[in-house]
């Protein structure tokens, strides 16, 4: 079952410039910056109360973020939801007829296992499932 919104992902062209903007906007700097080589992105995370904002900048012209920005420009890229059991959720969503982009979860940023639901099956919104990785 889906939990809270884990974060909003925002695609940006220039991570340093976007970090400056969001530091001013939110009144605090990012708490983490991390490269996710499997996705060809560098990310920054900001807290806003109980919520998080993830800024994503492409590190390669063939990354999903670069393609997104080329097609739609900077802006909200995805909505991520916390889940307790990502494998069970993927199976449930497949049975419900959703198109899943990742058959198996993979390691994402901020110590999470992640998987995505294709926007074609969720009213044009890319949905990310996030499960905390137990340490």
Automatic annotation (TrEMBL):
Pfam families membership: Glyoxalase_4
Organism in which the protein naturally occurs: Nonlabens spongiae
MF GO annotations: metal ion binding; methylmalonyl-CoA epimerase activity
Keywords, ordered alphabetically: Metal-binding
Residue ranges of coiled coil: none
GO process annotations (BP): L-methylmalonyl-CoA metabolic process
Annotated family: Belongs to the methylmalonyl-CoA epimerase family.
InterPro entries named in the record: Glyas_Bleomycin-R_OHBP_Dase (IPR029068), MeMalonyl-CoA_epimerase (IPR017515), MMCE/EMCE_epimerase (IPR051785), VOC_core (IPR037523)
Protein name: Methylmalonyl-CoA epimerase
Domain VOC: 4-132
């Amino acid at each position: 079952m889906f939990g809270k919104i884990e974060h909003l992902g925002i695609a940006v062209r220039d991570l340093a410039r976007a970090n400056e903007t969001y530091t001013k906007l939110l009144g605090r700097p990012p708490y983490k910056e991390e490269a996710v080589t499997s996705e060809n992105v560098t990310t920054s995370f900001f807290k806003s109360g109980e919520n998080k904002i993830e800024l994503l900048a492409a590190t390669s012209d063939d990354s999903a973020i670069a393609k997104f920005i080329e097609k739609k420009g900077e802006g909200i890229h995805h909505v991520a939801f916390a889940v307790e059991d990502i494998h069970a959720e993927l199976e449930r969503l497949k049975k419900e007829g959703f198109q899943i982009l990742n058959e198996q979860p993979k390691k994402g940023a901020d110590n999470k296992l992640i998987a995505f639901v294709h926007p074609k099956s969720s009213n044009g919104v890319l949905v990310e499932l996030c499960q905390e990785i137990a340490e």
